[in-house]
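Input/output pair, single chain:
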Amino acid sequence: MTTDESVTPTGSGRMNDEPIAILVKLQLPDGTEAAHTAHFSADEWLVLEAFSTYAAELSRTTLVSTDPGELRLSISASDAGVTSEAAMPDPDHFRALLLLMRPFVLQKEATHFGKVVNILRSRLDHPAFRTYLDRQKAIFAGERQQAMKLFSNGTVINSTETLDLWLNGFEYHRDPDKRAQFEALQRETLPVEVSLNMLVGIMLDRVRAVLDIGNAIYNLRRNVPVCPFPGDEARRP
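Output:
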């Protein structure tokens, strides 16, 4: 992602209240472009600017800017129980990533991923843009990691709900109740390494969706066509 100095919603240097009209272009898989004129309020535009800036910061973390290698997971079962072998990101690099994901993950933040996508979806009233944004929401929701759902104590482990339980119990808030709920999911035959590997995979997909939307905002600010990441192209409705 290319970066520049941009406005953040601090309350100082506010724009006027006139709607901001932007011609947004989206590159389609066949090489053609969909175009739509969107009108944003000044407050909405400030939030989009902030999201793009924070996404640029995220793109410079070690885990994103270098090739971390693939997450590998091997699971085997026998009469002795389930064993697993997992390859995980460097813990310090992953924690740095989690820190910069807070503005996109925490519900109270104006730049929460869902809130920003909702702003874009409400202003980009065009089928191709809705398809593109819905795809990013699905990626952020962990759907790419749910070709097969893994259950423990009746709970889906590879889900954003379990991911949030883990983040709030161990990383973001150290909430003892959340920690106890997460640990309770590991009391059957499921090794904790299996859970963590899947949750890290979901988190990295969330990063992917954030960077894609961040790039999209950066491009629409400059009247450059939005180009989805490979494999996430908007399909013509």
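The CA atoms of residues 105 and 112 lie 6 Å apart. Residues 1-15, 70-86 have pLDDT under 50 and may be disordered.
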